[in-house]
Specification:
With 97 residues, this protein is α/β, with parallel strands linked by helices. It contains 3 helices and 4 strands.
Length: 97
């Protein structure tokens, strides 16, 4: 991708994006755009297999993402998403659903 097309509005930020297992799809597109613009992103979806495929695809584009599967409406999964972001990237700045 041509970096001149995108800014770096999210440089150094950490985002959590749910619903990111379908490519193309809104969650994956959101995660991709945030990462292109500098964010580190925790992606989430219910389907572990599809989520891992999305994680690999985004990482192959050179983007800083990590997958965390589960139903985001489950309180324990929501906690795991935040814990994963903090453990891997040090904080959470942008939760997106």
């Amino acid at each position: 991708m041509d970096e001149r097309t995108f800014g770096h509005r999210f440089e150094g930020r950490v985002a959590i994006v749910t619903g990111a297992s379908t490519d193309p799809g809104i969650g994956t597109a959101s995660a991709r755009r945030l990462a292109i613009e500098g964010a580190s992103v925790v992606i989430n979806a219910r389907s572990d297999e599809r989520l891992r495929a999305t994680e690999r695809a985004l990482q192959n584009e050179g983007l800083d993402v990590i997958a965390c599967a589960g139903t985001a409406t489950d309180a324990s999964v929501s906690t795991l998403l935040v814990d994963t972001a903090i453990e891997r990237f040090g904080r959470v700045d942008l939760p997106a659903g």
